[in-house]
Amino acid sequence: MKNLKIGNISLNNNIFLAPMAGITDSPLRILAKQGGAGLVYTEMISAKALLYNNEKTNKLLKISNQERPIAAQIFGGDIHSVTNAAIKLRDMGIDIIDINLGCPVKKVTKTGAGIALLSNERLIAKILEKVVKSVDIPVTIKIRIGLFPGQNIATSIIKIAQNSGIKMVVIHARAASQGHSGKPDLKLFAEACLTAKIPIIGNGGITDEKTASDFLNIPNCSGIMVGRVAIGNYLIFKRLEDFFNNRKTSTIPSKEEKMDWLKQHVNCSIKHYGEKKGLIIMRKLTNYYIRDLPNATKIRDMFNTMTTISDFNKLIKIIKL
Ligand SMILES: Cc1cc2nc3c(=O)[nH]c(=O)nc-3n(C[C@H](O)[C@H](O)[C@H](O)COP(=O)(O)O)c2cc1C
Known about the structure:
Elements: E1 5-6, E2 9-10, E3 15-17, H1 26-34, E4 40-41, E5 45-46, H2 47-51, H3 55-60, E6 70-75, H4 79-91, E7 96-101, H5 106-109, H6 115-118, H7 121-134, E8 139-144, H8 154-164, E9 168-172, H9 186-194, E10 200-203, H10 209-216, E11 221-226, H11 236-246, H12 255-273, H13 275-290, H14 296-303, H15 309-318
Parallel strand pairs: 3-11, 4-6, 5-6, 6-7, 7-8, 8-9, 9-10, 10-11
Antiparallel strand pairs: 1-2
Helix pairs in contact: 1-12, 4-7, 7-8, 8-9, 12-13, 13-14
The protein binds flavin mononucleotide.
Flavin mononucleotide binds next to loops.
């Protein structure tokens, strides 16, 4: 297992938590760090909203020291807003700036950001060069392997990134048109890694030792990023690290372990947002914890109406594993 260095920042390992909008807030990132994640990211943040001092956006940047080092991910379609947002984030004490060049969601692409930028290499080069020159902290990017299956756009973007002073590239190895389903294209990913001179991190469909090894066995792949499977399964980071260091295989988390994480998550969420809001925010995440339980629908319905920690404690007592 490599101890990666991104610019001047040393990471404990090369297994990262993926940024996931609406999911990877501060409470979840703290749990992922406890579970051994080498690096966590904020949810993607609109560069323009940050510059307009949007209250909701500012709240996404409430970060606890336990999360450090932390990367803040921004999206934007023009040099001015991305650069100034990066400067603002640096001034706020963020450790690493990540620029989103891989999001296919319309809300993002209609602003010229995310994958909308991937087909405009000249503009990407200008944005990256300006941001790197404007902040004295590492700047990284997250991209897709291509826009449609079979296309490798990553090789040329990596070249641009290297020439612009970018310190690391994360590649989601599914094409943008695949969204978040289907298999990552490991052949194209290997092709993209071949000529890279900066760390390349693989992402997409990593769920266990086998799928993690599929990426890490590729020459020049410096690390991996884990997304949805980490929710309620935060020890996946330590387990994978243990596997790569000591060849120790371990089991998927038990239902008991998941319930322990759920309790910790609820407590963290309440601490961060307050009792009522903390529980409301947890509603959209409960399914990741309970979907394998025999009475999942009933538990979900109960969860969706609770507003106090004592309601939650009563519910936990009646959950049958
Ligand atoms: C609900 C959701 C929100 C996401 N939000 C972001 C985001 O804000 N920024 C980003 O770069 N990728 C985002 N992604 C993509 C993930 O970072 C990751 O690339 C993707 O989930 C594939 O990894 P996985 O197969 O391990 O889940 C999101 C994915 C999901 C499912």
